[in-house]
Amino acid sequence: MNVITSPVRAWIVEWATIGLHALSWSACSVLLIMGLVRILSERSRRKTLLAITMQAPPGTVVAQERGTGGPKMTIQVGGGPASHPERDS
After folding, report:
1. What is the per-residue pLDDT across 10-29, written as a single tens digit (0 to 9) for each?
2. Measured between alpha carbons, how far apart are the two ends of the chain, in Å?
3. Where are the domains of the chain?
4. Contact 65, 88 (CB under 8 A)
5. Structure pTM?
6. Neighbours of 84 (CB within 10 A)
7. Element spanning 83, H or E
8. What separation in angstroms does the CA of 36 have from each of 18, 67, 70, 88?
9. Alpha helical stretches, state H, the chain
């Protein structure tokens, strides 16, 4: 005996399909937003590093830890003697 009638079954299948389609668009949207946040945070990180190096006196070593969007960066400003930052052991 078939408990679910044909129109109800069609309605359930239709709404399940719409739900899955909406879920996949939601997942794509979340991934897109996460990627955009990573790109913008790395851009901000690099702009900060550039601003610091522009104001630093010659011979300064500027070290920036690894961020969400990029590796650790170390930059020596100018051609003076390098002062090495403290290293964590």
Report:
1. 777 787 877 777 777 777 88
2. 73
3. 6-76
4. no
5. 0.53
6. 9
7. none
8. 27, 15, 14, 32
9. 6-55
pLDDT tens figures, 34-84 = 989 988 888 888 898 888 888 888 888 888 788 766 788 788 887 655 555
List Cα–Cα distances, 25 to 20, 29, 31, 32, 64, in angstroms: 9, 6, 10, 10, 37
| Residue-level length of the chain | 89
Tell me what pLDDT residue 55 has.
Answer: 85
Please report which confidence band the pLDDT of residue 33 belongs to, taking 50, 70 and 90 as the band edges: very high
CB-CB contact of 41 with 54 (8 Å): no
CA–CA gap between residue 33 and residue 11 (Å, rounded):
33
Q: How far apart are CA 88 and CA 66, in angstroms?
A: 14
For residues 68 and 55, the answer to whether their CB atoms sit within 8 Å is no
